Amino acid sequence: MRFIKTIAMLAAMGSDIGIGAASVFKPTKPPAVPLAVRSPYLNAWLQGESGCVLPGEWPRFWTGDIQGWQGYVAVDGVAYNWMGGAPGPGPVNQLSLEYTSTKSIFTFDVAQKITLIVTFFSPVYPDDIQRQSLQFSYVTVTAKSSDGASHKVQVYMDVSGEWASGDNSEKVQWEFGTESNLYYLKFWRENQHEFKEANEIASWGNWYLSTGFHEGLTWQIGQDTTVRNQFAGNLALSNSQESEFRPVSENWPVFAFSHDLGDIKDDEVERIFTLGLIQDNVIHFARQNNTLEPVRGLWMSFYNNSDMEAVVSFYNDYRHAVETMSLLDQRIEKDSVEAAGQNYSLITTLALRQTFGAFQYAGTPEKPYIFLKEISSNSDIQTVDVIFPAFPIFVYLNATLSRYLLDPLFEHQESGSYPNKYAEHDLGTFPVAKGYPNGDDEAMPLEECGNMIIMSLAYAQRTGDTGYLTAHYPILAQWAQYLIEDSLVPANQLSTDDFAGTLAPRRNQTNLAIKGIIGLKAMSQIAQLTNNTDDFKDKAEDYLMTWKAYAINYDASPPHTTLSYGDKDSHGILYNIYADRLLGLQFVDQSVFDMQSDFYLTVANEYAVPLDTRHTWAKSDWEMFAAAVAKNETKEMFIDKLAEWVGKTTTNRAMTDLFDSITGDYPSGGPTFVARPVMGGMFALLALPKE
């Protein structure tokens, strides 16, 4: 059905599409295309500098490093390239790229004889921790005659050892095998280092490229040029493997399959490939007493600790995945359009895989964990002020997931392993969650105390699990006490926007203060829900009244809050008031929301409203937080500008959350953020309570 719909779409475009015609993009041309994006280590993209055209281009890891992945198709004895930068056969003509929340669908014309559709399919299961625990992705290749004549067709795919090691001087080993009608090529780094990375790629685990057996299936492991020339010259592989294990970059070993699809005329023919990583232990975690212990991959509990059971199960689950993910794709698109129109859907559908691609599922079914990697900024694990902007996606899809993210933070700090009275910033560097027993983490006390209290209440509200609040009440109250002491007039504090520079002397940050004050109001709710004395309500209300006097420049036209108290020439996006509406507190005056909403219209640049007056930089997660609680005109402005940025930006890598609001490029002199999970913030509108 997907094939028929795509052919019809292309036919409707008329005669403009021919040999060499530019690709069509639906809903838009993204900065980069998610190919296989399921975890921090299975995170491959087609970067946008290619114009999002796949033939002739190497897929790349989120870092921008090449991950050898080559695809060919042969029609009537002539080979063509549909993916990868290897020399040899010329490229097919890309007709279109369409992305949904879980799929990237490329349509190619091959010599005006065959229409080839290649779908990169990375399922996201918010309600199924078993299936989401696997670090695997699908690629399907479907061929059909486009001229009505019969044509002989063969398809080919290989991957290189670059997937198994971020250090190309390291030796890889390999093997071929079969299991339950499945053929697989297994490869792994010989020198395994558990919980270590090389250039952000895991130095442990086994990689599998797999496909189902069909008549005409062949395979080969060997030097890249040898294997690829074998297919181009013979339209089949040799069913053999080289015996000499060697470094990734020594004669570049590749692992390849070829399917002979036979004569294709009236019927479409599909072949399914799977690619992924198996790791037994996935995280090193200091739960208690500062002692690091390995945490198993959650997949092990469901698949009897067996690589092959997991590999076979994922392949055989394809039809279920298609049905389930079609419903999820439709749900996100429908909800997004109803909330804010097609432009909003364009944004949310691109954000789903990127967000979940930063998560590692660990533990057991009885005690599951989700560990987050702060991809590209500094690779921290369980960064609280990265979980917070991503939080709307969990509230929208399945709030229970948020508990699996918060649990490691509570467990570590409640064990006495963290000496400070305020909330810990993160738990270390992924994949080692050792925490900071000396209390020497990057201190963002007010930021993280507010975040933890707000997220804990949001989880309990959406799940009804007030027992969670009771269990953690002592430490929540401890953090709330810090807010009492420091939220109204923040002391020398860093906020989550530390990348933008410090405020001299980092005092009296208006937006940070309101987060702490809302955190106190949230703590009032927590006290009531847990039958504790509410020592927070009156304080929060008093602070809010004073904050309005300190924070608002009433003399401006239009009036607005300042970036810091008393600096009337400054302003910033007041995104932290979003938490008031997320929690349904109705605490902050509607007049504050309306005032900011009116003001944003007056300071918007080409692609966004600047984060604050220090730069022309914009943060897309905070743009959506502000849009979610703005008047309709302002909400549409935020969304339309961000949607335009998605289609025009020159950033060309997995969607950044930090860009220049005028040029649309990476911020000059600022950090380059890519592939970060904060894109979960794109779901801010969908996470709000239903009226």
What's the gist of this structure?
This protein is of the alpha+beta class. It contains 19 helices and 30 strands.
How would you describe the overall organization of this protein?
The chain is of the alpha+beta class and 691 residues long. It has 19 helices and 30 strands. It has a 10-stranded mixed sheet, with helices on one face. Strand 14 (197-198) and strand 15 form a beta hairpin. Helix 12 runs antiparallel to helix 13. The longest helix has 23 residues, at 318-340. It is globular.
Please tell me the overall pLDDT.
Answer: 95
Q: List the uncertain runs.
A: 1-19
Helix coverage percent of residues?
Answer: 25-40%
Q: Please list the strands of the largest sheet in the order they lie side by side.
A: 1-7-8-9-10-21-16-13-12-19
Overall shape: it is globular
* Derived structural class: alpha+beta
Secondary structure tally: strands: 30
- Tally of alpha and pi helices: 19
| Percentage of β-strand residues | 15-25%
Report Rg: 26 Å
What is the CA–CA distance across the termini? Answer: 37 Å
List the helices and strands and how they pair.
Blueprint lengths: L1 H11 L11 E3 L5 E6 L5 E5 L12 E2 L7 E7 L2 E6 L9 E7 L3 E8 L3 E8 L7 H4 L2 E11 L5 E10 L10 E9 L2 E8 L7 E2 L2 E2 L3 E7 L4 E7 H11 L5 E2 L4 E2 L5 E12 L4 E10 L2 E6 L5 E5 L2 H4 L4 H10 L1 H23 L1 H15 L2 E5 L4 E5 L11 H14 L2 H15 L17 E2 L11 H19 L2 H6 L1 H14 L23 H20 L7 H15 E2 L6 E2 L16 H5 L7 H14 L13 E3 H9 L3 H17 L9 E3 L23 H4 L4
Parallel strand pairs: 1-7, 17-18, 22-26
Antiparallel strand pairs: 2-3, 3-4, 5-6, 5-11, 7-8, 8-9, 9-10, 10-21, 11-20, 12-13, 12-19, 13-16, 14-15, 16-21, 17-20, 22-23, 24-25, 27-28, 29-30
Helix pairs in contact: 6-7, 7-18, 8-9, 8-10, 9-10, 10-12, 10-13, 12-13, 13-14, 17-18
